[in-house]
Amino acid sequence: MKLDSSVSAVVTGGASGLARASATALAAQGVKVAIFDVNEEGGQAVAKEIGATFHKVDITDEDSAVAGFEEARAANGQERILVHCAQISRRGRTIYRDRETGNYKRLATDDFAFSAQGIFVASYRMASLAALGMAGLDPIDDDGERGCITLTGSVAAQDAQIGQICYGSAKAGVAGLALPLARDLMDLGIRANTILPGIFATPPMLAVKERNEAVWDGLNAAVPFPKRLGRPEEFASLVLELNRNMYFNGQVIRLDGAIRMPPR
């Protein structure tokens, strides 16, 4: 897909981190970008900075998501690109010992379901809503391409650590979406891929640096090469290539400096 002003994109979570870098990179190519986020102040600021539109969207709410796509399409036209980065999740071990009573307790099913909704179900929601809109577009080339969906998993999909039963399994679900989506959408010329980023220098990780420089240094040292956390711009670079290169389809791609996470 040629990335220019003839193409529109929706980027979820675009107020910060990997999504912000992706929105910025797409806008730099001339793509008309719509940012979805619940952070209205941050999203508006990024949209103003890169010449995008902002739409307050809760990815866990069907009506909010539908309304966001309608607003974005009214502003920029039907998107051919979706980059879905937004998520919400909870932590906790499956079985843990209560500090007050000393008894074993189980992570609540509601906590697990909250994370599944905030990561796995939301990824399907945003991908399917985008695909429904893309299906009505004319192909942009002789191969019949109509659009491209990029989902964001995590290396935790394969290397989930202790306390990541919710996050890791939900991210594994996002990895598992790539191929079924690609096959379901193949006759429509819509591609789907999932990126599994490792540890990136996003705001939550930069906060770790401020709190504890030693922990930050340890995280950097844990990456085989390069011995540093990933840069959001490196994630965005892969997003651009996945959209440009039509032969990326149904792929799950680790972007992690060769890190493999230990149990803890």
From TrEMBL:
Keyword field contains Oxidoreductase: yes
Xref: InterPro entries: NAD(P)-bd_dom_sf (IPR036291), Sc_DH/Rdtase_CS (IPR020904), SDR_fam (IPR002347)
Molecular-function GO term, any one: oxidoreductase activity
UniProt-listed Pfam families: adh_short_C2
PROSITE patterns in alphabetical order: ADH_SHORT (PS00061)
Keywords, in A-Z order: Oxidoreductase
Keyword Flavoprotein included in the entry's annotation: no
Family indicated by similarity: Belongs to the short-chain dehydrogenases/reductases (SDR) family.
Protein name: NAD(P)-dependent dehydrogenase (Short-subunit alcohol dehydrogenase family)
